[in-house]
Each structure stands twice: as C-alpha cells, then as structure tokens.
Design a protein that fits this description.
TIM Barrel, globular
C-alpha cells in the first residue's frame, strides 16, 4: 500500500517530535502493510514549512529507516493550506507537489464558510497543477455546501479521505458524510493522515474492511496513489465491485442531503 497523506517527518509540524518517533510511526505503518509513505507536512500559516526543508528531512528519514532495517520508502510532498497558496512563490509551489509530479495536496480550512476558495482550486488547475483535496469529509464548508465538492470533482479534482473517518474516529457526522462520499463516487483515495504511532496512528486496510469497503481497498490505496506519484494525468477507473447492501441506505441519505442543501 501507499500512504498518500502522512505526517512522518520529525520536528516540522504536529507530527512526530523526534526521529525515534518517526521510526515508531514507520514501523506501525509497515505492520499494516504500507510500503511507501508520502511525507505531507503542513504548509500553512501555523507551520511555515518549505520545500528545501521537507526534502532534507525526507533524505534523513529514509536514511534512518534504512539504518533501522525498516523497508519503507518515504517520498516528498506537502499538505498545503489553500489560504497559504497566494503567498507562495511559483517555484516554491511547484516544489511542493506529491513525489515531484503535477499533483498538489490541498487542505481547506475547518470552517463552515469557504467563499472563493473553490475558485482558487480551479485557478491552480488552469496553471497546470492537478489537485488532491485532503480530508474533505472533515471540512464543514463541504458539509454545508456539498455541491461545491461535487463541482470541484467534476472539474478534475480528486479527494483523499482519512481512513479513520470511515469508522467514526472523527465523530458520527464525519463518518456518515465520508461514507456518503464513497457512495456518491466522490472518493478516490484513502490515506492514514497519521501523526504518530499511537495517536492519529497509521492504518488503512483495517478501517476499509470495517467500513465494508474492502473490495475497493486496492484501488484506493494502491492503484490511485501509484498513478498520482507517477505523474499521470488521469487515474484508473473505479472498479465495479459489490459493496455491502447497507450502503443503499447511505446512498439514499447522501442524495437527500444534497437535495436539502440545494433547496
């Protein structure tokens, strides 16, 4: 598996404090079947990280993993706050892509209003970037205006849902919304968004199985992130696989929610 969104670098944001903590996170991820981690530290107003620092720490983390006998590759990326994008120099923004390809991992704020931020995503696409939206299921603005997320996906953006959201680790409202996104075919990747070995721990497969989404696991955690890291313009189509009968009720809830928001 490939973990497309993980805070594995030490001392750079709200993830591990030390390289020993990074090693513990890496071992925990490896125990779940993860073989590649995309390091996505925050680039935000709180954490003013830059591409050069991220690149240096990726090299150091890979060296520490190798010295510890941990078979895990770490590649560079970033979780960029959409509100920070206008302040980033063009050359800096282009150096913050996932695996040095065309894809940016963009985070919307945890607010109920995001006026104009969707237009910024479209502008990034016009500049030639491809966009992955980080944990949209936890963004109140998308809950309030679900059509905004649908419009961004229709325009070519992908979404990356946090595995823990699917099993209620961020509350039942987020869980229900996340499962509704899956049913609406608005989810393209599931990542751990891990911040440590214990709290916000790594893991994807167990959560997908618990949520009844095991048939989509390979697509969500292997095929799609591979395509993104390879720099492909498109991702493989979602496989037509059976999901549990209980998802029918979730699909009805999701469509009713859209209709209520649109009215």
């Amino acid at each position: 598996m490939i973990d497309l969104h993980c805070h594995v670098l030490a001392g750079i944001d709200d993830g591990p404090s030390t390289i020993e903590d990074s090693l513990a996170l890496g071992r925990a991820a490896a125990a779940t079947g993860t073989r590649k981690i995309v390091a996505t530290p925050h680039v935000s107003w709180t954490y003013s990280n830059d591409a050069a620092t991220i690149s240096r720490l990726v090299v150091e983390t890979n060296a520490a993993f190798a010295a510890a006998g941990l078979t895990m590759e770490v590649v560079a990326g970033a979780e960029i706050a959409i509100t920070r994008v206008p302040e980033l120099a063009p050359e800096e923004l282009s150096a913050l892509t996932l695996g040095n390809g065309p894809w940016l991992l963009i985070e919307f704020p945890f607010t109920s209003v995001a006026v104009g931020l969707d237009a910024m995503v479209l502008e990034l696409q016009e500049q030639g970037y491809r966009i992955v939206l980080a944990h949209p299921e936890r963004c109140p603005a998308f809950h309030r205006e679900p059509r905004m997320l649908e419009t961004l996906v229709e325009a070519g953006a992908l979404t990356s849902v946090t595995a823990g959201s699917l099993v209620g680790r961020f509350g039942n409202t987020v869980k229900r919304y996340a499962l509704g996104l899956v049913e609406g075919e608005l989810v393209h990747n599931v990542a751990s968004d891990a911040h440590g070995a214990d709290q916000r721990r790594p893991g994807m497969t167990a959560e997908l199985e618990e949520a009844g989404l095991g048939p989509l696991a390979d697509w969500l955690t292997c095929a799609v992130p591979s395509a993104i890291l390879e720099g492909r313009e498109t991702i493989p189509s979602r496989p037509d696989v059976p999901l549990p009968a209980s998802t029918t009720a979730r699909r009805r809830w999701w469509r009713r929610s859209l209709l209520r928001r649109a009215s």
